[in-house]
Amino acid sequence: MDRNLALEVVRATEAAALAAARFIGKGDERMADRAACEAMRKALNAINMDGKIVIGEGEDGETDLLYTDEIVGIGSGPQVDVSVDALEGAFICAMGGPNALSCVALAERGKILRCPDTYMDKIATGPAGVGVIDLDRSPTDNLKALAEAKNVYVEDLRVAILDRPRHEALISEVRKAGAGIKLLSAGDLSAAIATTRPESEIDMLLGIGGAHQGVLAAAAIRSAGGEMQARFMPRNEQEAEACLAMGILDLKRRYTIEELAGDNVMFAATGVTTGDYLHGVRFFSGGARTNSVVMRSKTRTIRFIEAIHHFDFKPEY
Fold first, then answer.
1. 74 and 143 housed in the same domain
2. Strand ranges inside the chain, DSSP E
3. CA-CA 20 to 30 A from 60: which of 28, 158, 245, 302?
């Protein structure tokens, strides 16, 4: 893939973030999500690529925007698989909460794991966790191993966990081990990526969350040299059957980061609301500022982009 493709794709995440930001705190998550999807699709269709969406906003028929197997791009250029979340955290955007963002991952065809809209059990860390953590070990053992790798005490570590009833036992064990917890109302994608940033307050992400967000997080974490493992956790028989239909035959299998995201993946994201990894959109008279990140796994290059947008001069995609 052309290395400049990621810099083109960040325009799509910026467009989606700017559109969604108009709905921050206004209580309408559906309108926020719709605006983000429309803006992202329009921007993606202006990019010189032959893209196929493998993780999107739903199946064809469930949604008319950014659906699975939709073709995006101008039809020429490299053939790529595209994974998108035009607005990760639509509810928290509508409520004015933290960690809403817009993101896209690109990979060579067949190099991003295709999966249904189900759940995953996840563990994620920054580079210090490579070869150290193991989803099959207890949270306590993983915390001890990461603390040793970082040359700190377990008590110095902070773990991000979604605040859900299903995590009561996990939260109890992490606290008993001595680590601090950052409870998330939503937005575990942003928190997972934040484990790779040294100045972040998050050392590890644990727990069950969305599978699509897990694959997108893996693309970013791999690009940043971090570590992630996951296992599918379908919530019901229908989701289990959907996994089987997509070739996920062993639901007990532990997926490595290499299996979740290929060896030549690109990731771009723009903050909608300020979170653990990116600042949110900030409007000013006649324009706005956005904070984005662009990553490439091949070179582990990470670029942070602070963009100033003047609306009178914005491109018509």
1. no
2. 50-55, 71-72, 79-88, 101-108, 119-125, 158-162, 180-184, 204-210, 227-232, 255-256, 265-271, 282-284, 287-296, 301-310
3. 28
Name which of 160, 138, 158, 162 is nearest 150 in CA terms.
158
Rounded Cα gap, residues 301 and 181, in angstroms: 30
CA 293 – CA 217 distance, rounded (Å): 13
Q: What is the per-residue pLDDT for 6? A: 86
Examine the pLDDT at 46 and tell me if it is beyond 80: yes
CA-CA distance, 147 to 162, in Å (whole number)?
22
Looking at the structure, tell me whether residues 163 and 242 fall in a common domain: yes
The Cα 217–Cα 223 span in angstroms is 10
In whole angstroms, what is the distance from residue 14 CA to residue 7 CA? 11
Nearest one of 104, 103, 91 to 24, comparing CA atoms: 91
Q: What is the pLDDT of residues 179-222, one digit of tens each?
A: 999 999 988 999 999 999 988 999 999 999 999 999 999 999 99
CATH number for the domain harbouring residue 82? 3.30.540.10
Q: Are 125 and 217 in contact (CB under 8 A)?
A: no
Local structure of residue 151 (DSSP, 8 states)? T
Crossing angle of helices 5-21 and 29-44, rounded to 10°? 150
Q: Which two tokens stand for residue 123?
A: 């563990």
pLDDT per position as a tens digit, 3-34: 789 899 999 999 999 999 999 999 999 999 99
For the entire predicted model, the pTM comes to: 0.95
> What counts of helices (H) and strands (E) characterise the chain?
9, 14
